[in-house]
Amino acid sequence: MIVPNFWNPRSRGERVEAPQTGRAVRFLTDDEFPPLHFAGPDGTPTGFSVELARAVCERLSITCTVQARRFDTLLDALDQRQGDVVAAAIPLTPALRAKFLATRPYFRWPARFAARADKGLPLPSVGALAERSVGVIAGSAHAAYLKAFFPKTVLKDFTDIAAAEGALKRGETDYLFADGLNLAVWVGGQEAESCCALIGGDYLENRYFGEGVGLVTRQEDAALSRALDDALQRVWDDGRYTELYLRFFPVSPF
């Protein structure tokens, strides 16, 4: 399985310690977006982002708490000092960076192709997809990307991902091009009934698919943000990131 590496090996420097405040660092998350963050069997928040945050706290030797809130309230709660760090799938954007600090991305949103597993279709390329039908969500960044870089592909628009996946499963389109995380969860799940698989590589152009997600803090907590960034690097270096990735992504989006 491919485990993504978002860290620059030449960026390693002296270890950055977390600022000592005398209290626990409060992480805020949402519990309805598996596999990144969701409620475990006992109701406790878990998921890739949450367990990565806990691993970061271990590396920094700091006490942390994790509290679940509704997704659309997370940044407001951070701004109102009801927590110290947001560990959730909030895209890193210029608007977010204008108000908050964020670590380097620890996860990105790859675009991927999926296809029927029994058709023997060629790997996606501009030539291979000429005149082929590809399902997309109407008006999405994925549709715009194909229009720009795969101009001879025949796009079939769908209103939502479930409809597009169903059409691929029934063989009504040759390929589906969409968010790799959604597709990975679908092809590895029961609903797909092993009909389909990811095919070809990942597409990570920022202009279309964004920068990804990082740990978000308030601007005045720059020392904490630097410590979190350094700890994420060390969690990658010691293999804990890979361990968590393999645990929460049985089918890799990459």
UniProtKB/TrEMBL annotation:
The keyword Signal applies. SMART domains: PBPb. InterPro entries: Solute-binding_3/MltF_N. Keywords: Signal. Pfam families: SBP_bac_3 (PF00497). Residues 24-252 form the Solute-binding protein family 3/N-terminal domain. SUPFAM superfamilies: Periplasmic binding protein-like II (SSF53850). It comes from the Bacteria. PANTHER family: L-CYSTINE-BINDING PROTEIN TCYJ, MEMBRANE-BOUND LYTIC MUREIN TRANSGLYCOSYLASE F. This is ABC transporter arginine-binding protein 2. It comes from Methylobacterium trifolii. The gene is artI.
